[in-house]
Write a structure and sequence with these properties.
- This protein is mainly alpha-helical and 135 residues long.
- It has 4 helices and no strands.
- The longest helix is centred in the last third of the chain and has 16 residues.
- It is globular, with a radius of gyration of 15 Å.
- The model has no long low-confidence stretch (mean pLDDT 85).
- Bound molecules: iron/sulfur cluster (SF4).
- Iron/sulfur cluster binds next to α2.
- The site of iron/sulfur cluster has 12 residues, from α2.
């Protein structure tokens, strides 16, 4: 959690143009289930990155930069997983002129193998049905 943000937060809710609002707002997390901060980070990242509907979150880049600047250690931000963002921050520390660029989530060592990733892709529509869409 960021106590004192180093950058202004993106416009998560765009009232003038709701299509430009954060895509994660379409899903209602519950106390027991919040894919953005749980073991289902790949599912959350798939939503951010439009893997199932071809629609990338309209503020993905802003979200990613905000999370990187504020050193958000947990959860999915900007369609990237915590270990991938950590790698980006470390690369930037080594090269301050490096431009932060989004890249697709990479599995952690202990994560899924290729076969399991393919299974996850196949199960994605079913997993999405388990989420609570905001009416
Ligand atoms: S990129 Fe950020 S704002 Fe957009 S859906 Fe993902 S977590 Fe939400």
């Amino acid at each position: 959690m960021v106590l004192k943000p180093r950058a202004e937060a993106p416009l998560w809710i765009n009232e003038e143009n709701p299509d430009k609002s954060a895509k994660c707002l379409q899903y209602q997390p519950t106390r027991e289930h919040d894919p953005w901060f749980e073991d289902e980070e790949l599912l959350a990242a798939a939503i951010c990155n439009g893997d199932y509907d071809g629609t990338i979150c309209p503020i993905r880049d802003e979200c990613l930069h905000w999370a990187l600047l504020n050193n958000e250690q947990y959860g999915v931000w900007g369609g990237m997983l915590p270990h991938d963002r950590r790698n980006l921050r470390m690369a930037k520390r080594a090269d301050p002129y490096l431009e932060w660029m989004w890249h697709p989530p990479t599995p952690k060592d202990e994560d899924l193998d290729d076969e399991e990733l393919a299974e996850f892709d196949a199960d994605l529509p079913e997993l999405l049905n388990l989420l609570n869409p905001v009416p």
